[in-house]
Design a protein that fits this description.
Length: 500
């Protein structure tokens, strides 16, 4: 019996992994049991591998005379053991007891805005701590509300049902909902101010906005044309207050008579002609080509015939389109150089005759006479106004003046393979619009019916906008090309009309 209990106690106190007793009272009960059973003083425990035990080689563990450290609330207990034979030591551990807390009665309640607390104390060691009770926040309820108006702020007042604290939310004013009352409005004139009249749809408040006096509504009733020595005057009257006004139109243009020859032109050189102003006698001179001369800017069937022959003679690598441009000028220059003529790129009658002769020899047309080229009017370099002509087949042709030919030539030189780029169109359209508007201004200055000029201008630009809209589906490039062509046609038509 004693041996069996001693073995049990040894396993209880010494083996790792066995159940542990964490309370000091339990350990004391075990010791008391040993004394009652009459066991030797100290606790024996058997184990193996003792170097001094020659019987079975195991340790004989004893706790007699060794100090046991009992566990506390936070620290574990220690039970030492010593081998009776070899003096080796080993230790067993008892877990900490842990605190045994109770409420002390010291506390503070939580409120809407502050935390509360409860105090606890350990029955064993006297350690204390406080447990926090979070603030539970306000419980708001609306106690009063005032709606905002057009020009006054509103408010909503709230109160906490727990502590009675209050706060107020401001509701911003809505502002007036103004609506114009047309029947109460008055338009301004050159003599009186006008006003707009408004009424608020929400509160019925009213407001006026003053409109300053307008400009006079002058209408022209008489125009005196000026000339190169006398300024023109336009007489106007306000349709409201009858105030008279005069507009200085400035000096007019010279009134030149017919051209007369000062130096005659030959078949290979230009001449000089002059004309005089019938008012001040001022003389104006210009050079001109002999009849039949073709130069850059010339157009028509005569140019196409010349181009066709230069192509056959291998001087022109282009098409015969009837427009005398840079390529045709270079071809004429090359022909003149090759045939001992003065090389200037101008197709003088002498040059045209030489081209016809060379072409006839090249083709040897036995039954056909050499065709006589069309004799155009002044080439663009000399022409001061555009004109529209019909050829033998009643096809319309435009002979450009020198200024408008310069605009057209910029487009032709910058184009690639007959295609006008979008960038070039964007530059050319405003240039032609400026030229057309200057012609409208000229028309206004020389006629007393300036209202009719204004109507004609408005009608043209309105038709232009309608056509732009109608062609929008064809793409921006097509719209711009059409607009440029319409501007060119209207500009040359007006140029020819004003200079007839």
């Amino acid at each position: 019996m004693k041996k069996h209990f001693k073995s049990f106690l040894s396993g209880f106190m010494g083996r790792q992994g066995s159940r542990r007793r964490g309370k000091a009272g339990i350990f004391l009960l075990v010791l008391a049991g040993l004394l009652i059973l009459g066991l030797p003083a100290g606790i024996r425990a058997e184990s193996t591998e003792c170097p001094n035990n020659s019987v079975d080689g195991t340790h004989m563990w004893l706790t007699q005379m060794l100090e046991i450290v009992y566990p506390t609330c936070t620290d574990q207990g220690i039970v030492p053991q010593k081998c009776e034979y070899c003096g080796a030591m080993k230790y067993s551990y008892m877990p900490a007891n842990g605190h045994d807390y109770h409420v002390t009665g010291n506390s503070a309640p939580a409120t809407c805005t502050t935390d509360g607390w409860v105090e606890y104390k350990c029955n064993s060691c006297g350690d204390t701590y406080k447990d926090t009770i979070p603030a539970f926040g306000h419980t708001w309820t609306m106690v009063n509300s005032i709606a905002p108006s057009c020009d006054t702020d509103g408010s909503t007042r709230y109160q906490c049902t727990t502590c009675g604290t209050e706060y107020t939310d401001v509701l911003p004013k809505t502002g007036h909902q103004w609506q114009i009352v047309e029947e109460n409005c008055e338009a301004p004139t050159c003599q009186n101010e006008g006003f707009y009249f408004y009424r608020c749809l929400a509160c019925g408040a009213e407001m006026k906005t003053i409109l300053p006096k307008s400009d006079h509504m002058f209408m022209t009733y008489k125009t005196e044309k000026g000339d190169c020595q006398h300024k023109g005057v336009q007489y106007q009257k306000c349709g409201v207050c009858d105030l008279e006004n005069k507009v200085d139109l400035g000096y007019g243009e010279h009134k030149y008579g017919s051209w007369y020859i000062k130096v005659a032109a030959t078949d290979h050189s230009s001449g000089v002609r002059a004309r005089n102003c019938s008012v001040c006698g001022r003389e104006e001179t210009e050079s001109f080509y002999p009849d039949g001369t073709l130069a850059r800017g010339s157009q028509g069937s005569a140019v196409a015939d010349l181009q066709s022959k230069l192509i056959d003679l291998h001087y022109l690598n282009d098409r015969a389109d009837g427009a005398f441009g840079k390529n045709t000028e270079n071809a004429v220059n090359a022909f003149q150089t090759a045939n001992g003529l003065s090389a200037d790129g101008i197709a003088w009658p002498q040059t045209i005759a030489a081209v016809n002769d060379s072409w006839a020899k090249e083709k040897n047309p036995a039954s056909q006479p050499t065709p006589t080229p069309e004799q155009p009017a002044l080439p663009p370099i000399e022409r001061t106004s555009c004109r529209h002509t019909l050829d033998a087949e009643t096809a319309s042709h435009t002979d450009f003046c020198k200024d408008h030919w310069a605009l057209l030539e910029k487009i032709a030189e910058a184009s690639s393979n007959g295609t006008v780029s979008p960038e070039l169109l964007s530059e050319a359209i405003p240039a032609w619009e400026d030229s057309l508007n200057s012609l409208y201004e000229k028309w206004t200055s020389i006629t007393q019916y300036d209202t009719e000029v204004y109507k004609a201008k408005e009608a043209f630009y309105h038709a232009l906008e309608l056509q732009d809209h109608a062609m929008a589906g064809l793409g921006e490039q097509a719209v711009k090309e059409w607009r440029l062509q319409a501007l060119i046609d209207e500009t040359t038509r007006l140029c020819a009309l004003l200079n007839e």
